Amino acid sequence: MKAKLEQTGISDIDLSPGKSGQFDITVDGQLAYSRSRTGRFPTDEEIDALTGR
């Protein structure tokens, strides 16, 4: 997951695993994806959409 995100060229990406299986992706300081909201990990297509690719 991290390698896929790093390929986007965005320098400020933060992966934050947390308690109870929480998984958030923050791009440029903004929450871009939250596993707690969707109940699953993002697909490659969703990652591309989050990063504008």
What is this structure's SSE topology?
Blueprint: H1 2-6, E1 13-17, E2 23-27, E3 30-34, H2 35-38, H3 44-50
Antiparallel strand pairs: 1-2, 2-3
Give a written overview of the molecule:
With 53 residues, this protein is of the alpha+beta class. It has a single domain (2-50), classed as 3-Layer(aba) Sandwich (Glutaredoxin), CATH 3.40.30. Helix content is 30%, strand content 28%. The chain has helices at 2-6, 35-38, 44-50; strands at 13-17, 23-27, 30-34. It has a three-stranded antiparallel β-sheet with strand order 1-2-3. The longest helix has 7 residues, at 44-50. The chain is globular, with a radius of gyration of 10 Å. The two termini are 15 Å apart.
Q: How would you summarize what this structure contains?
A:
With 53 residues, the chain is of the alpha+beta class. It has helices at residues 2-6, 35-38, 44-50, and strands spanning 13-17, 23-27, 30-34. The two termini are 15 Å apart.
Widest sheet: strand order? 1-2-3
Strand content: 25-35%
Please identify the oligomeric state: single chain
Q: Structural class, from secondary structure content?
A: alpha+beta
Rg, Å, rounded? 10 Å
> How many runs of DSSP E, i.e. beta strands?
3
- Mean pLDDT, to the nearest integer, reads 77
Cα distance spanning the termini: 15 Å
How many domains, in number, for the residues?
1
**How would a crystallographer describe the biggest sheet?**
3 strands, antiparallel
CATH class: Alpha Beta
- Can you tell me the residue ranges where pLDDT is under 50 for at least 5 consecutive residues? none
CATH fold-type name: Glutaredoxin
Q: Quick one: overall form? A: globular
